[in-house]
Amino acid sequence: MEGGGLPISRVRRELLYLVEKNATVVVVGHTGCGKTTQIPQYLHRSGWTAEGSKVLCTQPRELVVVSVAHRVAEEMGAVVGGEVGYRASSFEARTDEGGSTSSIEFSTDEALVSLMQRDPLLSPYTVVMVDEAHERSLATDVVLGLLKKVQRRRPDLRVIISSATIDAEALATFFGGAAIVSVEGTLHDVDILYAKVPASSYISEAVDTVVKIHKNERPGDVLVFFPGEEDVSQALELIEEQNDFERQRGGADDLVPLALHEGMPTSKQLQALRPAPRNHRKVVLSTSVAETSLTIDGIAYVVDCCFQRERYYDPITSLESVVTCPESKASAVQRAGRAGRVRPGKCFRLCTREAYESGLLPESSVPEMQRSELSHVVLQLKALGVDNIMSFDWIAPPSAEAMVRALELLHALGALDQESRLTSPLGAHMAELPVHPTVAKPLLVSGELGCVEELLIVAAVMTVKSSVWQLGRGRKEMERQKMKFAVAEGDHVTYLNVYKGFLEAKRSPGWCDRHCVNYNAMMKVLGVKSQLWSALEGLGIKHSSSDKETLPVRKALAHGLFANSAVLSSTSTDGKGRATYTTVRGKVVTKVHESSVLHRNQPKCVLYTRAIQTGPATHEMFEVLAVEQDWLTELAPHFYTSPGVG
DNA sequence: GAGCACTGC
């Protein structure tokens, strides 16, 4: 397909003219208008890739990078790795550094940040297009700030920002008055219908809406968006009850409800993506995975609860919380668009039109940059030569507290010196590792402590976000299986046993199923582990193993995680018999989360990977490591002796 | 008694 019928083709000439005349152009257009696949080809055909120069297009997600590269190559009659290439880590690299012949390259935003550490002026590129900029991921915001900086030294560099929403003005202003071009329309129209009154419970309202669609609307599958996994399972139960009720009345039970969320095994996810049996209507009950990451064919109706869950980092306590809040209009539009992929569809929003139009729903979500822990971003910027982080040209500046926290942690980790300059070699090496600074430091000290192999495994598991554990036949069974691997030293050390078992079982998916281990997560662990090993090897670190000795492993981890410490409270329980802890810094009351192998052990002092607020006054620690309290002052003397702390 | 979603040097 040539893409001639796509909405983007109507603005081709205008777009090319604007790119010629302006340093920066903002393109506004919804998903499906063809901008991602067509704009790079327009640029290619109009001379922007002449004489070995290149056009780069970035995406927030790796999966999209790979699939778009293949689609564009196919449209051009080229092969991936030839005229069209991509940069992605966990997939086989299809372009190499300098000698690549690709005219059009696709990469993730993250990969562009790392590319800029090696080639700050992006010398071979004439145009960089930042796609899906409205998603405002951490990496997107970093890329936008960096590109603006590069443009000052390379006035010839063209930047195209593509966004699905109307915050185009803000983006254009940030780039000193960029040109704006709008792409009207999508492939198919979607009718938007609103609730007449605000719903008292979005779960039952969503289920009622599904039932109404099933009774009154033409055939076509339904996709329902819920904020979280818990909502998905409740809705699933309600629809099954409804089906039972229909059966008893002798009605048709041709409604097929299917859950879809990140935490499910892939086989179950695929089930939700498969077409329903003939004459049945499929209802996919999903979290926001289906908003951007997964595409389901045959969806004609979308039901949107109009809520989403967002993670917030509190720099004062250094703890995170996950809150349910009204979704942004940008998400609402994206979700609705999922109904119009194959033919005109309908979207039922469970908020009122007044609520939508009066500003009760924000235009866009708070950018990740303003609700995240920033030590990794700060370290990256330092490595890119941005000396004064506070005065970096942020498109949305993070809070001063969050930046101070990040600088403080990086200083305590030894990545920055007294003057906040990157230390050498430690800070520079930490910046070269594709993991969070609290994980990079343990990896780097593992050489001296003789436990490189063990740290590679633990760091890989910590970096692969999806849990190593997976529900098999119920929570009880998972608990039972987990205990087979569990050790008193904690979750991180337990991972070593899981990894060992996985290798001894020759990476068998069946073994994983029987032991409630997530096969996909383990395969990713293998990939990340070998990637980390080549990075460490490149830094001159020699391989070693501590075998059955776990003390060096815990010590190495403590070198990175010391800031996340909590001690067992003397007044021991929360009323339900569970021990409470107090974070050493911040003095917040917290508990060991049920998912941890240590949730009954009550060690005196623990380090955690993350602590999340799970209730109004409840914080829980995920991934917990048992340590000796005197390690804290030993490993981070300044951190634990400053006034008012410790 | 159970955690939105992504990614990388």
Q: What sort of overall outline do the alpha carbons produce when their principal axes are compared?
A: globular
Tell me the helix content: 25-40%
For the record, the CATH class of the largest domain is Alpha Beta
Instruction: Tell me the number of strands.
Output: 20
Percent range for β-strand residues: 15-25%
Q: What is the CATH topology assignment of the largest domain?
A: Rossmann fold
Return the domain count: 4
**CATH level-four homologous superfamily name of the largest domain:** P-loop containing nucleotide triphosphate hydrolases
Please give the CATH architecture of the largest domain. Answer: 3-Layer(aba) Sandwich
Report the biggest beta sheet as strand number plus sense, adding barrel if it closes: 7 strands, parallel
Tell me what you see in this structure.
This protein is α/β, with parallel strands linked by helices and 646 residues long. It has 4 domains: 7-182, Rossmann fold, CATH 3.40.50; 190-369, P-loop containing nucleotide triphosphate hydrolases (Rossmann fold); 373-419; 562-641. The protein has 24 helices and 20 strands. The strands form 3 sheets. The chain has a 7-stranded parallel beta sheet with strand order 3-4-2-5-6-1-7, with helices on both faces. Strands 8-15-12-9-11-10 form a 6-stranded parallel beta sheet, sandwiched between helices. Strands 16-17-18-20-19 form a 5-stranded mixed β-barrel. Helix 9 links the parallel strand 10 (255-260) and strand 11. It is globular and about 65 Å long. The termini are far apart. The structure holds one DNA strand of 9 nucleotides. It comes from Chloropicon primus. Keywords: ATP-binding, Helicase, Hydrolase, Nucleotide-binding. It catalyses: ATP + H2O = ADP + phosphate + H(+). InterPro entries: DEAD-box_helicase_OB_fold, DEAD/DEAH_box_helicase_dom, HA2_WH, Helicase-assoc_dom, Helicase_ATP-bd, Helicase_C-like, P-loop_NTPase.
